[in-house]
Design a protein that fits this description.
Blueprint lengths: L1 H12 L2 H16 L9 E5 L4 H13 L4 E6 L6 H9 L4 E5 L5 H14 L5 E4 L21 H22 L16 E6 L15 H23 L4 E7 L2 E2 L16 E2 L1 H14 L7 E4 L8
Parallel strand pairs: 1-2, 1-4, 2-3, 4-5, 5-6, 6-9, 7-8
Pfam families: adh_short
InterPro entries: Fungal_SecMetab_SDRs, NAD(P)-bd_dom_sf, SDR_fam
GO molecular function, one term: oxidoreductase activity
Length: 294
């Protein structure tokens, strides 16, 4: 209230001519929300590097139209995104979003609401498996730490669901979307190791269980969207083992031909996203389109 009064006082003290410029600027800012963005608006969360960055690249390069909102923790040091911004200045926005700070998720949703009015595709591409001196995938129960379990759960499961919660009112069918979708799509990057039915090796307690939680939360949201007849579908995607910072320390035992490039994996995943229909809501797909058991 005090801030509001101070703002009003400052506004009244501004010369009349400047006040009218400010009013026009704010009107054009807000009226842009009525504009339908040709080609649709896609958001890639966790876009600073790895699979997320590759999603942004392919969404921009493979479609002639459409806007991409790429989010990351530190936009100023996201060099991959900044070089894409040089090339696609009109079609790419970079927004700050840290999954562990809900206020940044809310602020990002407000920005998208004000600038675009709606969102047609949301890809949660972030994730953590190991962080030097902080988080190590456990090889035995005796190495399990409360702090690791909670951190993996916070970033891999809680964060993406809060993103869906805040973007939900914006998730609508795109008027001019090139993919001619009749539903908005939420795609969460999960991992096959999050499957309980497929768990034969054990280990990686924090990562496995956080991805299993992400799967359950996403499935639960998908049921609610269907019950409310919201034209939104949620899918979970396993990208395969992909050559990124996340997998690098664990690539030694990957069989020959089973380590994918980001380009290959994202091309496959976009194929699944672009073909997704209402009957796919709540399903968990591998990169090759095969369903993965829970
Ligand atoms: N690579 C694989 O083999 C593989 C296999 C199965 C599943 N996946 C899944 O695929 C997804 C992408 O993995 P990747 O290989 O691309 O990993 P990556 O190269 O390590 O990239 C991880 C991304 O997550 C972001 N991130 C981490 N903590 C965050 C936070 N608190 N808030 C917002 N963003 C955060 C990172 O941002 P910063 O740059 O700020 O750290 C980075 O952009 C993950 O969900 C992963 O579990 C990967």
């Amino acid at each position: 209230m005090r801030i509001l009064l101070l703002n009003q006082r400052a506004f009244m003290a501004t010369p009349l001519i400047l006040r009218s410029v400010a009013r026009r600027a704010s009107l054009s800012f807000f009226s842009s929300s009525a504009f339908k963005w040709e080609g649709g608006v896609s958001m890639v969360q966790g876009a600073s590097r790895g699979i997320g960055l590759e999603f942004v690249k392919q969404l921009l390069e493979k479609n002639e139209k459409g806007h991409v909102v790429a989010t990351c923790r530190n936009p100023d040091s996201a060099t991959g995104l900044l070089s894409l911004k040089n090339k696609f200045s009109e079609r790419l926005s970079i927004q700050k979003l840290d999954l562990t700070l809900e206020s940044t998720i809310e602020a990002c949703a407000n920005c998208i609401r004000n600038k675009f009015g709606s969102l047609n595709l949301l890809i949660n591409a972030s994730g953590i498996l190991s962080i030097p001196d902080v988080l190590q995938p456990e090889t035995t129960l005796s190495r399990v730490e409360k702090s690791s379990l909670l951190l993996a759960y916070e970033v891999n499961a809680v964060g993406p669901i809060l993103v869906i919660k805040h973007m939900w009112p914006l998730l609508k069918v795109g008027g001019h979307s090139q993919t001619k979708r009749d539903v908005a799509i939420v795609a969460n990057l999960s991992a096959r190791v999050g499957s309980i039915g497929d768990n034969r090796l054990g280990g990686w307690h924090s990562y496995r269980s956080s991805k299993a939680a992400l799967n359950q939360l996403t499935k639960t949201v998908s049921v609610e969207f269907a019950r409310k007849k919201d034209p939104i579908i949620c899918i979970l995607l396993h990208p395969g083992t992909v050559d990124t910072d996340l997998s690098r320390p664990f690539q030694r035992n990957v069989p020959e031909g089973k380590l994918f490039t980001k380009e290959f994996s994202v091309q496959k995943l976009l194929g699944i996203i672009n073909k997704a229909k209402s009957h796919d809501n709540g399903k968990f797909f591998a990169w090759d389109g095969q369903e993965i058991p829970w």
